[in-house]
């Protein structure tokens, strides 16, 4: 990790879960802690980047003054915040665990418990933020995604990288205990659109963030050379 190697670079990071409201007191969400995304944002900031961190609801705080925190709740709000920051961003890293579906309508009062009837919640598909940004990506912009796969992990990750027009995808290995949601450690494989694949060992999310940012520095270097 070279000091200040991201000086002058603008970076967008998404982190955390999204909450999709059902009624004023309930939501559909997931167990994403936001730790991986926050660690990546801090790593970029410590290396001189100007970071916009678009975060779903988490119980973490930002340490570096070089990080502008944009708090959102739902996938739609997250997309909107990303659309604002993306055109100016040199590098965008999609770490958020975006809910795939949202309730079709939000009840304006708390849904009451009925004696016989069980309520039905109709769902609609949420926007794919990474894919949307991928379709808007300009020459020179770098877009990085994360993938959590259980089977055919490499093929699926490559498929996602292509479908979303990503330059790099970070595959979380779920086979290893200590990797993934809620934990303080992670084990990843970094895959690039030009066919590169690097497997890293189990380490702290801070150390994984440094590896991911190093890998992105490598991509940038290739861009400027070619
Ligand atoms: O398709 P899948 O959810 O497995 O893709 C994961 C990657 O796409 C992650 O980088 C995640 O942040 C991003 N994503 C997104 N918006 C969605 C779903 C996933 O940005 N609605």
Description:
By secondary structure, the protein is α/β, with parallel strands linked by helices. The protein has one domain (10-110, 120-225): 3-Layer(aba) Sandwich (Rossmann fold), CATH 3.40.50.10300. 28% of the residues lie in helices and 27% in strands. It has five helices and 14 strands. The longest helix is centred in the last third of the chain and has 21 residues, at 205-225. The two termini are 22 Å apart. Cytidine-5'-monophosphate binds next to helix 3 and strand 9. Residues 11-226 are annotated as: Phosphopantothenate--cysteine ligase. Its cofactor is FMN; Mg(2+). It catalyses: N-[(R)-4-phosphopantothenoyl]-L-cysteine + H(+) = (R)-4'-phosphopantetheine + CO2; (R)-4'-phosphopantothenate + L-cysteine + CTP = N-[(R)-4-phosphopantothenoyl]-L-cysteine + CMP + diphosphate + H(+).
Question: Nutshell version of this structure?
Answer:
This protein is α/β, with parallel strands linked by helices. It is built from 5 helices and 14 strands. The chain is globular.
